[in-house]
Design a protein that fits this description.
Shape: globular
CATH class: Alpha Beta
Strand order of the largest sheet: 3-4-2-1-5-6-7-11-8
Number of strands: 11
Order of helices and strands: EHEEEHEHEHEEEEHEH
Oligomer: single chain
Strand content: 25-35%
CATH superfamily: Survival protein SurE-like phosphatase/nucleotidase
Radius of gyration: 18 Å
Number of helices: 6
Structural class: alpha/beta
Largest sheet: 9 strands, mixed
Length: 247
């Protein structure tokens, strides 16, 4: 299988390198990663400045490139230019070093880099791990062992990705569950640093609206979660309610 690996943490992040080393044993792997930390980039693309890339000598087992763009740029540019004529079977984004659950996905460079794959009719997976010890081997093994099975569950129209999140509990993980996307709100504030400007800080709030099989609830009690996330943003229920209205 041809795999394009991307992330929002940069080429030398341990998560993406661990995943590449594990997957290259059985697959053809190419990394395209941002040249700097790009967390929180969402689905942003670079329109008003030039993109440049450089091949890096990381391993003889797979090819690695850095790009002066966003995570979504890495997916788009990787498919269109670096791998032109050799389209990947799947784009895997991660392994990110914190979870991307609930409404995090609106901002997440990790999740949105995987969603960008849908724009190119390529399967996508986003993988995150709330990791304190920097040991990504457990999660990388899970991805490698279940990759073909998970891709087989995705719709063939390639408009949906799986957003995979592991809490910081292996090897005491309770299990893996498919989950809907919950609400994850934050207490945020902007703090001023003299001579530099304002920086956002915050922490997650508990939210009683979360219940049942949401990624927020299940992750919080020790389960890894796999959530289907669709590229199409339509609220079909509301559309059915309003489609006959004439203004």
């Amino acid at each position: 299988m041809k795999i394009l690996l991307v992330n929002d943490d940069g080429l030398y992040a341990k998560g993406i390198l661990t995943l590449a080393e594990r997957l290259c044993k059985e697959h053809s792997v190419t990394i395209v990663a941002p040249d700097t930390e790009r967390s929180g980039s969402g689905r942003s693309l670079t329109f008003h400045s030039a993109l440049n890339y450089m091949q890096m000598a990381i391993s003889e087992e797979y090819e690695s490139y850095i790009l002066n763009g966003t995570p979504a740029d890495c997916t788009k540019f990787g498919i269109d230019t670096i791998l032109a004529g050799n389209k990947p079977d799947v784009v895997i984004s991660g392994i990110n070093n914190t979870c991307n659950i609930g409404t995090d996905i609106a901002y997440s460079g990790t999740v949105n880099a995987a969603l960008e794959a849908c724009m190119h009719e390529v399967y996508g997976l986003a993988v995150s791990y709330d990791c304190d010890d920097n040991d990504y081997g457990y999660v990388a093994d899970f991805v490698a062992k279940n990759l073909e099975f998970l891709i087989g569950l995705l719709p063939t129209d390639k408009n949906t990705i799986f957003n995979i999140n592991f809490p910081c509990v292996p090897p005491k993980l309770k299990g893996v569950r498919f989950a809907t996307t919950g609400d994850r709100k934050y207490h945020d504030e902007y703090q001023y640093v003299e001579g530099r400007g304002y920086f956002i800080t915050g922490y997650p709030l508990s939210d009683d609206k979360n219940a049942g099989y949401t990624d927020v609830v299940l992750n919080g009690v020790g389960y890894a979660t796999i959530s289907p996330v669709k590229l199409n943003f339509d609220d079909t229920a509301l559309f059915e309610a309003v489609k006959g209205i004439r203004l």
